[in-house]
Amino acid sequence: MEEVDVEPTITNIPAISDGKHMGFAWGPGDILVYETRYKASGASGSGCSFIHEIRKDEDIYSPILRKLFNESHHIFVGLQTIREDLPSKRDVNAQLVRKNPHSVFYSDIHFITLFSGTILTLICFLLKVSILLAIELIWNLCEVLFIDAAPAGSLLLHLLDWVRLHKADVDEKAREVLQSESPAEHRDYWDVVVSYVLQGRLEEVRQMLVKQANLQPAARSMYKQMDTLLSKMPFYNPGGTQTLTEFDVKWRHWHEEVDRCLQDNSFASNRHLELICKILLGDEDTLLDHKELLGTWYHFLVTRLLFCHPTVKLTELHYYAQSCMTMFLDSRSVPEPLDNILLAAFEFDIHQVIKECSIALNNWWFVAHLTDLLDHCKLLQSHNLHFGSNLREFLLLEYASGLFTHHSLWQLAVDYFDHCPEFGRVYLELQIERVPLETERKALKVLRVCEQRQMSEQVRSICKIMAMRALRNNRLGSALSWSIRAKDAAFATLISERFLQDYCAKGTFSDLDLIDNLGPAMLLSDRLTFLGKYREFHKLYGEKRFREAAKLLLSLMTAKIAPQSFWMTLLTDALPLLEQKEVSHQQQLVLGHGFLPHIALQKLHKKRLQEQKHNIPETRFADPISCS
Amino acid sequence: MFVARSIAADHKDLIHDVSYDFHGRRMATCSSDQSVKVWDKSENGEWHCTASWKTHSGSVWRVTWAHPEFGQVLASCSFDRTAAVWEEIVGESNDKQRGLSHWIKRTTLVDSRTSVTDVKFAPKHMGLMLTTCSADGVVRIYEAPDVMNLSQWSLQHEISCKLSCSCISWNPSSSRAHPPMFAVGSDDSNVTYGGKVQIYEYNENTRKYAKAETLMTVTDAVHDIAFAPNLGRSFHVLAIATKDVRIFKLVPMRKESTSTGPTKFEVQIVAQFDNHNSQVWRVSWNITSTLLASSGDDGCVRLWKANYMDNWKCTGILKGDGSPLTGSSGQPSAMSTVLGSSVQSSQNALNGMSAGSSAWTF
């Protein structure tokens, strides 16, 4: 595939002089630039520069596009779940919620008029609507040509539908004419009639002509004749019993009959009817005389086919497409991007369609979805790319990456990455880490995505970030639960230490709920286990379950998970137990002597002796060590 | 592309570096006015300066953020021959209400005898490690073993590159398939000896960094260097700012089991652009490594992108035009083409929007 050489766009940055150096910094969804000067050493200059935030033109924050992204996401996900081995085009079609994008934004018109009244916004909106209309035009054509891919006979009918869908202004005009006092005398009357003929809507033509006929009783027979011609025009019926050949024969007969009427000058006295007759014959010059009513070369193409070659096959389309475009456009005018895209579609050059779309459109949305759709229909013979990836994945990755910078659309992007087998996961890992974690709720959302996909490193990292943030803000409980979730033993130890230090300082624990309900998470680190068990000890003591309290305290001492700094406190806690009846003598002895080799209790011990009458042998102790 | 907003930076001298934090909600700027400013982005997208303080006794060349796993930590480097580490202190509630925060210096690294030209944190999986490079040709790697005590840093490695250093870049890959690796660029202007880019790799056995590769084809002064995010590839991509923009591919060659030296690489040049006409001063990758930005003597920032066939080309240019700053924030450029043209015709609209550029993501 040849690379189209397109000039890069130039964006002018104000307040930076031409020729001055520009520094930059990449951000999520933007790039910052500022004036600077790069020199080996000691560069200085004037101060007060500006830092400019540069963004892409296309606006993922638009509410209209938002809805579009959501709907196409829905279609995309549905498409991926079709069985890979049997994607018949009918399956694809069935899955495709063939929602007319008109519905997407026309329902938003109301919304838009409410939300902002500035002219700028309105224009922006209308522009988006126009682009969406163009996109819809392209998409529908691709559906007709590539997916429906109807055989001769039906093909023309689909193309007619396509043209009619995108030429809604006829109905508006018709409505205006019909609602007037005397429709047949309305200045737009004949325009409407001719437009209907051009679109092959002969029923409507007949209804309109009746009104004219009633005004001209003298010409009644002529109108009757025209009416007969119109009513007899054969239209292929795909569901019927008539074969294509039979239809063709019938159509030729009808065509000859119309021609005879023209040669006979049957309508010579009425230029309008004669015009209609010529159109029915598919006369090129007549058609080209009505460029204004046709509007576009592709309308011209379909009309011409309707009245010259209704049994056109897919493979024959491109002959007609190119010639129609050439005939319709002036020699002066150059084909525009939309023309090129449609022409490429008629020529069945799918790659060209995609390439032209990529160039013309600012957002990868359309191209990515179109390519995905075509790929599912096995229509895309992708080149073997770098790293073995393919075009579909390349485009989807581009599109989804663009969504990722949006504060909520990133969730849609996740599904796209999930369906990119080569690089989806690594792209997701890279980008999900960067989602700002403004609130706990958002962090949990991000975490859920990571946990569902066993992205354990990202889970750990996010939890660690949250734990660190909580710790810096002195929210120990939050910090602890995040470290537990991160399975970060070292951090859990650190925070447990802080809890214990706090206890030493204040005599109480904060975040009791958390510590009481640690469960198996307690085992993450020794210090954490100690914290949990120590609190349990306090609870038991508070409930006056002294025997169990003593037992627990004993186990804490003997298990050696108590930090050295805490032994003093433990022993202080032990002392009141010594005077409880429930605590056995043996337990008392062990408690009392538990730490004797290690710490000295002299002052405290003596104090207790004064207060009690227990017979505890006096031993020599070293100086007490403080609790910190 | 369009200018979405312009922030009055308020530095009293040239800005030398601007650095976004990991999540893109904060940024730091540093200047020849010897100060660093920290900015926070509010919910509505406005930037507010929440801290501004003097950091060095000379121009501050670079400022960089540590990974948020380590808290709110910045490092800066300066012409005054030092690098410094700063930590944000959660302030009084009064300060918070006024939208201010305080940063305190945790350490000053004074080992360099010349201007410290770059400072970068190593990838987070290596712990809290800081790397500096200086005009005296030495790369220094420091580590803070206790993440909760940022005043303790130990100099773990001192690597002499023989040539004056201007920039360093760590390979961000955390894959076990490659040992830690960084690239150093030299702005030594003597073109008679090549090898202005050196790649160093960590050796598990010797516990030291050893030179793995010298890019001999780079003979001109190198001003900036950047490894691209790895994306699970087996090879590495390195962008270099020298007299042109160059992108290299480093393919590790399979090691024999007996080999204990650094990895051998096959070095391929993937792209070379001289559109900037003279020196290129900065290069940097976006997050997904799909776009490379470069800034040069022609006063432009250029954006480079590879298509799916891996052909690189310039997809956008940002250029100062010296026009005065308009008061309001910008609108997409599509606006100017719409006014006056029919908005009914989808044909017109699509043509009007034809920016002529293949779409790209940041």
The helix content of chain B, as a percent range, equals under 10%
Q: Which consecutive residue ranges of chain B, at least 5 long each, have pLDDT under 50?
A: 328-362
Average pLDDT number of chain B? 85
What is the global morphology of chain B? Answer: globular
Radius of gyration of chain A: 40 Å
Helices and strands of chain B, in order, run as EEEEEEEEHEEEEEEEEEEEEEEEEEHH
N/C terminus separation of chain A:
73 Å
Oligomer: heterodimer
Derived from helix and strand composition plus strand pairing, the structural class of chain A reads mainly alpha
Specify the number of helices of chain B. 3
User: Count of DSSP E strands of chain A?
Assistant: 4
Structural class of chain B: mainly beta
Helix content of chain A: 55-70%
- Largest β sheet strand count, sense and barrel closure of chain A: 3 strands, antiparallel
Broad shape of chain A: elongated
Strand order of the largest sheet of chain B: 2-3-4-5
Largest interface comes to: A-B, 117 and 114 residues
Structure annotation, total helices of chain A = 31
Strand content of chain B: over 45%
Largest sheet of chain B: 4 strands, antiparallel
Distance between the termini of chain B: 11 Å
Subcellular location (chain A): Nucleus, Nuclear pore complex
Function (chain A): Functions as a component of the nuclear pore complex (NPC).
Main location (chain A): nucleus
Family (chain A): Belongs to the nucleoporin Nup85 family.
